[in-house]
Amino acid sequence: MSMTIGLAGKPNAGKSTFFKAATLADVEIANYPFTTINANHGVTYVRVECPCKEKEKRCGKCVDGVRLVPIDIIDVAGLVPDACKGRGLGNTFLDELRQAQAIIHVVDASGGTDAEGNPVDIGDHDPLEDVAFLNREITMWLYGILERNWAKLARKIQAEGLKLEVVIAEQLAGAGIRESHVSAALIETGLSRLDHVKWSEEDMIRLCDTMREISKPLLLAANKADIASRENLDRLKDLDRIVVPVSAAAELALKSAAKNGLIKYSPGDRKFEVLDGDLTKAQKKGLEAIYKVIERLGSTGVQECINRTVFELLDLIVVYPVEDEGKWSDKSGNMLPDAYLMKRGSTCHDLAYQIHTDIGDRFLYAVDARTRLRLGEKHELKNGDVIKIVSTAK
């Protein structure tokens, strides 16, 4: 499936560093607000264990059994309070988030930047305030879109007997809201469909807040965790969120060192191996400092953020379609050529359509390449399945 993770947060929290560490893209990083003027689009990867480890032959698509499956990631400009009213760089960059199925909120856990993103002494700012402000900005952005024509729409729904969920979804389609999101939010808030004309401003904001939670699930990247106080990290972890301590700067340094052949490192590893014995004194000192960070945090946290967003927040699985169930290959003999991210609960027929519309339309059955058992169209796929689709499509 095509999917995009959005990186959001206030200026100077480390989003661009996180983005560069996740993608190794060439982006500007500086210690002042609004470094990112135009949203950065890139490709990052989720890390999974490759099924080829079960075979004698390696697939050639993984390194030491670690397979990296590509996904899109977008780094929007830093948001400041009242961005939804056009403050700072305003709604332009909230609009960029419409593409995202989930959001990684990069928070300066050290408290070293104020609400506007200006540098202050470490610990002077409460990072929990940043969490609350971003949620409110996105909620009020949705509310602003919905409220714009609501009086007219509410009367039209009542007069013409239109379906409430459909009308709201159409109004918010540009923000990535679907009918299913609206239906779930209406159930969760308990707002009466019959009394929609009487909804108060508070009711509508509550609805938008719930739709935000459902349509844009959010993970907190507690960045600068290497210089953050234990108290700040603990308070962030106490929130009802997935919270990952992160040092984006450490990950970027490791990726750059690996790219230059100085170390052996795979994204998400809990250690690295020095390959170049002729490191400068500064390089050795830098790697020693990073080693201590990893030892304390468990990893740099960047890869954990991406993996947990995909597999926990979005509840996706990885499936490997093949044409030869014996060799786990395509017709050309390429072993495990593709890895598809799919929603948990997807069926063999869903996979067929994911591969190609014609294959889905002319689906006959599937084969589990591990067991060689024939599977029906409604068979639910599991994470790591290797599947052959049989159809009459040419």
Automatic annotation (TrEMBL):
<dbReference type="Pfam" id="PF08438">
    <property type="entry name" value="YGR210-like_G4"/>
</dbReference>
<dbReference type="InterPro" id="IPR006073">
    <property type="entry name" value="GTP-bd"/>
</dbReference>
<dbReference type="InterPro" id="IPR027417">
    <property type="entry name" value="P-loop_NTPase"/>
</dbReference>
<dbReference type="Pfam" id="PF02824">
    <property type="entry name" value="TGS"/>
</dbReference>
<dbReference type="InterPro" id="IPR012676">
    <property type="entry name" value="TGS-like"/>
</dbReference>
<dbReference type="GO" id="GO:0005737">
    <property type="term" value="C:cytoplasm"/>
</dbReference>
<dbReference type="GO" id="GO:0005525">
    <property type="term" value="F:GTP binding"/>
</dbReference>
<keyword id="KW-0547">Nucleotide-binding</keyword>
<dbReference type="GO" id="GO:0016887">
    <property type="term" value="F:ATP hydrolysis activity"/>
</dbReference>
<comment type="similarity">
    <text>Belongs to the RelA/SpoT family.</text>
</comment>
<keyword id="KW-0342">GTP-binding</keyword>
<protein>
    <submittedName>
        <fullName>Translation-associated GTPase</fullName>
    </submittedName>
</protein>
<feature type="domain" description="OBG-type G">
    <location>
        <begin position="3"/>
        <end position="266"/>
    </location>
</feature>
<dbReference type="InterPro" id="IPR031167">
    <property type="entry name" value="G_OBG"/>
</dbReference>
<dbReference type="InterPro" id="IPR013646">
    <property type="entry name" value="YGR210-like_G4"/>
</dbReference>
<dbReference type="InterPro" id="IPR012675">
    <property type="entry name" value="Beta-grasp_dom_sf"/>
</dbReference>
<dbReference type="InterPro" id="IPR004095">
    <property type="entry name" value="TGS"/>
</dbReference>
<dbReference type="Pfam" id="PF01926">
    <property type="entry name" value="MMR_HSR1"/>
</dbReference>
